[in-house]
Amino acid sequence: MTDLAGFSLNQQTIRQWSLPRLVEGCARAGVTAVGLWREPVREYGVAATAALVRAAGLTVTSLCRGGFLTAADPAGRAAALADNRSAIDEAATLGTRTLVLVCGGLPDGSRDLGAARERIGEALAHLAPYAAERSVRLAVEPLHPMYAADRCVVSTLAQALDLAERFPADQVGVVVDTYHLWWDDTVAGQIARAGAGGRIAAFQLADWVTPLPEGVLLGRGQLGDGSVDLRWFRGRVTDAGYSGPAEVEIFNPALWARDGAEVLAETIGRFRAHVL
Known about the structure:
Elements: E1 7-10, H1 19-29, E2 33-37, H2 38-44, H3 46-55, E3 59-67, H4 74-94, E4 98-102, H5 113-133, E5 137-140, H6 157-164, E6 172-177, H7 178-181, H8 187-196, E7 200-205, E8 207-208, E9 220-221, H9 230-239, E10 246-248, H10 253-256, H11 260-274
Parallel strand pairs: 1-2, 1-10, 2-3, 3-4, 4-5, 5-6, 6-7, 7-10
Antiparallel strand pairs: 8-9
Helix pairs in contact: 4-5, 8-9
């Protein structure tokens, strides 16, 4: 199972599992790293989750998500900063260095992408020192352009790096997610740029399958089922100096309807066949 040293299972890939079942299933399968989400962690209890994963010898590779930093009104901005400080505290308790940021879409009635991105930068200036004091790095995740209106006005790795590079690399990095970046013909150069600056905070895997479902959020494909050259991406981030895990993060109701242990075994097999 030594080839799984570079594998992390994001909690959402098998969201039908409770946290205790996730920990048990990973231990049984030889998986030693997990990515967690705030909602189920809060439901179980942040301190209780931290104790659970540590007792099992698991590493938490990331916590998702912070972000949604584009509100234009003062009250909305203050609320977002407070929520993100809480997310940073939760990440620190869980022992993960990486808090993934889904930065937010356009405020209601706005069409100004540039202004929304600038508000992200302003928010990072408040949050990065707070995170650094707690040994947490903020990881700006660019999302596919289809999410720009409502979820993330940061659509390319270049845009993410333009924001991150305003701050020290140990405070703000970026996420390289194959699902969101596979279409961009500048991504190889931007991965190299991210690596040269020590900015790759997380590497996430999912495949792109069509047709997309209504709502688009839950359409990620199992590794090897779609259009993404996953091994190519792994090679690029490795060449850029990234030595951390590849975190498999798949939102897919068809996977959630199946037996979790079966899904995990299949995902490990696909990781070996299409990523290593």
